[in-house]
Amino acid sequence: MCACRLGRSGKSVQTWLDLLDSKIPNEGYVYFALFGDNFDPNVVTELIGIKPTRTARKSNPIPRRTSWIYSTEMKKDELIDVYQMASSLVGKLAPHIEGILQAQKRFGLEAVLEVVLTISPDDSISTPSIGFERDVIEFAHRTGAIIDIDTYRGFHDDE
User: Fold this and answer.
1) Residue in 152, 74, 143 with CA at minimum distance from that of residue 120
2) Is the pTM of this model over 0.90?
3) Which region, left, alpha or beta, applies to residue 15 given φ > 0 means left and ψ of -120 to 50 means alpha?
């Protein structure tokens, strides 16, 4: 029997093979972020009128920029529907668009609508449904947000 280990995790080859044989779901979340060189996320929160999921302040060496982020929860399922996740997120942010625009103008903030997906290595599981409804495209246009999609193939090592 081989006692070989793979990668930094220290897991045995057999453990990885067992994981590949199991039904590992897709994972994904969507977030809207405002980025800038140096601003107070609390002031942005007051302007927008909705509490962010997380914030970060510029530091050396990272993060390189200050951020204000509003995110969906991580979804783990065989079917990840980006259309629905993005529309749900925008539905919560759209009533606050004037505050978002004020914050962008006041602090010179850049906006991004980010999709993060980890696609199951199990070929029997459907790949995520990726696309955007008109409300999402309009929101991205009004806020000047770029749309970025990060995709990963594999599974998370939670240990």
Assistant:
1) 152
2) no
3) alpha
* β-strand pairing of 26-36 with 5-6: unpaired
- Count CA within 13 A, CB hemisphere, residue 152: 12
Distance CA 125, CA 76 (A): 12
**Cis peptide before 61, with omega less than 30 degrees from 0?**
yes
Q: Which two tokens stand for residue 110?
A: 């850049």
Check if the beta carbon of residue 110 is closer than 8 Å to that of residue 11. Answer: no
Q: What is the pLDDT of residues 22-51, one digit of tens each?
A: 678 899 999 999 999 989 999 999 999 999
Tell me how far apart the alpha carbons of residues 127 and 80 are, in angstroms, rounded to a whole number.
8
